[in-house]
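ok, trying the design again with the full structure, not the truncated one.
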């Protein structure tokens, strides 16, 4: 949800859309530094989250951050910016900060994975309890994290630190070559995830359809059911007992127009949310009514 008009307005928008979980940017995603957030705004945000009983709430880190960068200016800026992201998340009481692992800028991917792990350990030792959630990626260019093996390697090099988790994006799974559309492919994908990473590390889903086909390695989100994923994988995920308690967050295109401080229901968000809710199978108790 947009934070236009202040961070508490994102909670108002979540309530208007009947959300149970929420993802926000705590600062401009395309800038290194963001505006300072005052105590009053933080208190109002936390109070509204409690009153609405929305949770978990996570933030998404700036797209500029690259913890895989070799030592130099970019790496220094990335560490400083990610530290700021964690500090903001701590103040707001968030579960974690979703982060793309980064792109390797020199040498082999294995070395860049080690740089990511090194940075993660430095960051979690600096402050607090907020988690860093590594987002599985589509694999564009030199982006890391497009395979479960790479994510597992990073986690292993952090010593399995309890504050490092994983966020899976359905569009990215499709784009990077994981077939979650077919029944067999879905089963094989999550068997591999469990074996290499473990469901205890999975803390959130991004539910997005894909404009591009399996293995395209292109990250282009589409509305639920209108892309190459279709409805079947979403039906499986929202009814999968293994994922029952996980936040499932939309990053689908908005309905258009410039974000303002006004609280309005986005027609595209409503349609996507209604579609996903319509895929939920009734519980036994509901079925008996």
């Amino acid at each position: 949800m947009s934070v236009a008009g202040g961070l508490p307005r994102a909670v108002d928008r979540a309530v208007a859309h009947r959300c149970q979980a929420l993802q926000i940017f705590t600062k401009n995603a395309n800038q290194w530094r963001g505006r300072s957030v005052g105590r009053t705004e933080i208190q109002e945000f936390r109070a509204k989250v409690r009153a609405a009983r929305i949770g978990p709430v996570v933030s998404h880190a700036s797209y500029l951050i690259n913890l895989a960068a070799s030592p130099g200016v970019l790496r220094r800026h990335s560490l400083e910016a990610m530290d700021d992201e964690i500090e903001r998340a701590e103040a707001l009481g968030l579960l974690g900060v979703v982060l793309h692992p980064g792109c390797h800028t020199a040498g082999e991917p294995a070395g860049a994975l080690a740089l990511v792990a090194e940075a993660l350990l430095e960051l979690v030792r600096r402050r607090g309890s907020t988690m860093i959630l590594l987002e599985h990626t589509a694999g564009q260019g030199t982006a890391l994290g497009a395979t479960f093996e790479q994510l597992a390697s990073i986690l292993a090099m952090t010593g399995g630190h309890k504050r490092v988790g994983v966020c899976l994006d359905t569009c990215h799974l499709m784009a990077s070559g994981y077939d979650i559309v077919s029944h067999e492919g879905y089963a094989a994908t999550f068997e591999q995830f469990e074996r290499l990473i473990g469901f205890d590390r999975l803390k959130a889903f991004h539910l997005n359809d894909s404009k591009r086909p399996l293995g395209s390695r292109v990250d282009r989100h589409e509305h639920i059911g209108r892309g190459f994923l279709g409805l079947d994988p979403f039906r499986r995920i929202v009814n999968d007992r293994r994922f029952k308690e996980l936040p499932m967050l939309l990053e689908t295109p908005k309905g258009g127009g410039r974000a303002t401080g006004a609280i309005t229901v986005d027609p595209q968000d409503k349609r996507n949310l209604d579609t996903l809710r319509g895929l939920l199978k009734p519980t036994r108790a509901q079925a008996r009514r």
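Keeping the full-length input from now on. Residues 148 and 192 are 8 Å apart (CA to CA).
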